[in-house]
Amino acid sequence: MAFDEMSGYGGDVRDSYRGLARWLADAPEGLLQARSRQAELFFRRMGVTFAVYGEAESSERLIPFDVVPRIIGAAEWAGLEAGLIQRVNAINAFLGDVYGAQECLKAGIVPSELVLTNPHYAPEMQGRRPPRGVWVHIAGVDLVRTGEDGFFVLEDNCRTPSGVSYMLENREMMMRLFPDLFADYPVRPVETYADMLLASLRACAPEAAGNDPTIVVLTPGPFNSAYYEHSFLADKLGVELVEGPDLFVDDGKVFMRTTQGRQRVDVVYRRIDDDFLDPLTFRPDSALGVPGLMTAYQEGTVTLANAVGTGVADDKAVYTYMPDIIRFFTGEEPILKNVPTWRCREPEALKYVLANLGDLVVKEVGGSGGYGMLVGPASTKAEIEAFRKKLIADPGEFIAQPTLDLSTAPTLDKGELAGRHVDLRPFVLSSPDGVRVAPGGLTRVALKPGSLVVNSSQGGGTKDTWVLDV
Amino acid sequence: MRIRIDHSTTYAYDRAARFIIQTLRLTPRSSEAQTVRDWRIETNVDARLRRSEDAFGNIVHALYTEQPTQSLTVRVSGEVVTTDTAGVVPQDQETLSPLVFLRDTPLTQRDQLISVFASEFSAHPALERMHRLMAAIHGSVAFEVGVTTPTHTAAEVLALGRGVCQDHAHVFIACARQMGVPARYVSGHLLRSDRDDQDAAHAWAEAWIDDLGWVGFDPANGVCPTERYVRVATGLDYLGAAPVRGASYGGGGERLAVRLSVRDADMQQSQQQA
User: Fold this and answer.
1) Is the ipTM of this complex over 0.85?
2) All domains of chain A in start order, with CATH
3) CB B21 to CB A292 under 8 A?
4) Where is the Transglutaminase-like domain (chain B) (predicted)?
């Protein structure tokens, strides 16, 4: 039986959920459904959508929103926060080292080959240091839980993590739908995220930018699945939302076209992948990027958030070394655990994985968003055998993990509350002033009974995440 | 040898471009094998040039035009004094681990054909394998101008069986990486014995051989580089070492014209004296 966020292993309601349980008991019948329908209506009207790749008929659809919040107590959160700060500090140090002295490779902490042949390692960054030495300005760390104290990191998203708009929108929606519930609950605000992010990005601007750096959000454009979030964030930050052609590089500096002429840009919060950033350095056919951007970046006149080449830290193969990376760079034991992982590139591990495919989750090293993975217990024999062939053909491309019994949280399904598996993506901001975690995050929920795949691309939904003050 | 290089690259636009930005890898670096002298870089219009070095150790100039430009010519000229190193590249300037040069790029992506072609040499020691690979590519890909473009991949070229030096280099790189041998692209100049004026700069490949370091292979000519070769830039493929990458704003279509002369400066001098 999975651990339930509200009732543990079926015992008393856990402290953090007591208020909610009382409120639910008092709520008139049908209230939750009514609120749920209301929420959907609001979201549709606001146009909060998310394109799902691989769905031909509808390029955009609403991610289902569940009105029952996921609640995290203050003490639980304190542990998570400390673990996230430690981990993201280690990741920043790791990236600085990989693109610098490479001590962790020399010491054998991570195999050189794994890092240097990794497609996300950016040779262009070797010997470079981004402005202020910050690599991962924004991380979205995926956590899962298997028990009272059993939090595991599933993935470190260090490139262009998305989903923070859901954290903010979901909260706004909940406050609108259930104002009385908030009155009784000491829920920490997530609305401050935009201010936190703005302060963090400003602090990461190049030294020469002065006290009032110009920040922009760089989006690939309206056809990108996360375009809504890009425009949402630019709006919340109070900065310009730009596409590649709105920017240009002259004399080693980045400028934005405005009706008043050119304006210097100091920080680019870019939601474009490395490969598309600069057609003069990376893909020459990229119309999304800014010609010469890397030249400006290497001159240190502009901050890119996140830095170029951070994907080498969230690669699934490098992930398996994260506990050692944390020990090496912080001198501490990791507070947050990794999910035990078999690296299929190692023959012994591969043997085990092939013998236990039906029980494991197997993921492509370079994959994301729940694409191209095998969930053994939920797959047919034919699916498993097809996957076996792929795995044997290229074992280095895969890792395997035990099927974790993810915690469940009460979720509204056809008018009834039922436990559905959840994960959690908190957002972690790094700047020279330190690493901070927004008190909340994106809780994703697998809406199908028993399903463990929470990705929105695979039919998952979201919940508001409450972090309590006491 | 003293090699005199005079290399002009002209981009002509449909209409005057408001602004042009280019990244130039046209300037060779001095090393134990080559000494660069009196190197000049000039433009036909007012432009700002900012010199830097990329992570691959290449000298890069970023060029920014000052005014609307119908036609932009960048001319580099100078002398390079070379010595023969039997193709072995002096190891004084390496910034990147050879492991970096095992990765595929879109231009050097491997396919079935590449892997079969490369598998023929697997029995030999690395250096021998690379020599055989070079000879095999020299034999299998005929030199022919005009059948390929800079976007042709190694696999396409090998299937086509024709191409220019850039294509030969890509096939070599893809096959070497397929064998687990780090390989990289080199752009540069070749002092030819039959003519001074050339249509385009030269390109070849380098492979990493344990104990020797980087060793040059010119599969277009089937030989290892000699003192007649001048190294200008290296990269994972053509794109990383391309002499010019640029973008223009408002210029519409563009046409490229190259003028290149590579001569033996000593010969020139002795002729003048005679």
Assistant:
1) yes
2) 340-403 (3.30.1490.270)
3) yes
4) 157-221
